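Quick log. Single chain, no ligands specified.
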Amino acid sequence: MWLDLIRLPNTCLMTRTLAQTLQRSPGDLIQLSHVNTITPFRIIGILKPRGLARVEGGAMAITDIATIQEFIGCQGWVDRIDLKLKPWAGEADLRRIRGALPEAFGLERSAETKETGEAMIRGYQLNLSVLSLVSLFVGMFLVYSLVSLNAAARRNELAVLRALGGSTGLIFLLILSEGIALGIFGWLVAIPMGSMLVQYLLTAVSGTVDSLFVRVQAVALRPDAWEILLSFVITVGTSLIAAFKPAWDATRIAPKEAMTIHGSISPPPSTGRVFFPAGLSLIALSWPLALLPPVGAFPLAGYISAGLLIVGFSCLSPPLLRIMGSRLAGPLRRLGGEPAFLAGRYVREGGNRTAISVGALITAVALFVSLVIMVNSFR
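-> predicted structure:
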């Protein structure tokens, strides 16, 4: 097969991946175009997906150097010769090769381009990993919101349980188990959904890497048992952390609240004096951090800056919602009547509870914006 490639004109070898994509087999003709020339090439063999056939993600064909020189009109000319040196070759050998080359030729390390592409791919992978952590942060917001609202709605029931002799530890474990149940339910839903979406996501991400850095061949992703177990531990652990604060607050419910007719929720303490300056401080601190150089090849300060920015805007949600609910209730009544007025009052009274959902929304929007900025910056 290799001798036929040298002996026969206008012949080529094609990788199995490319042959399957183009639906070609040995003996078929393919039309190759260069400038104003279109030449038919005959496929004389299919390369197995190993070794040289895996270059460029397997999307390649091989022909004799004389054949390609005739095809592009550069007989007797080459633009590059790849040298594979022995492992023990040193600088003295490189100087000897440079001295033997004509003046118009140079000797460069092909690994420099490869290292640059690998560094870009590592950065792309690192950014995707950090954005995955941001998505965990969004999930923590949502679990915290659901557990907090459920604990507040069952406040009277929890007070009755305390009056009947239930310990604070029992209340704590009860609310905490609700967060764990939400995590397990979310994991059970996410695994099959992720399995259905993973092929599309793999194609999209590998397509971006293919367009920006180097050709890759997207293959089916098959998570092993260790990865599935790790995802379960991370999901349940994140839900456990998110449910800790509502569970701790539920242990402070007094048994005497069981005597009330309705499970009224005591107004939460004002946190505007803490959250507002804290949010402004975090946002202001994110700017100088973003200007710091990376630590080695890891932009630690940049990631911390992005995290402070998200947390800062989330901290501003409770006081801003309370201000909006107080100031906009009157104008909303004139525009939309009593329902709009009650909506404004609800935002004011339930500012802390509503702020949790708003914080999750802010983080989700930040995640989307980060993805867009990341892809455009790499381009």
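Strands lie at 11-15, 29-34, 37-47, 61-62.
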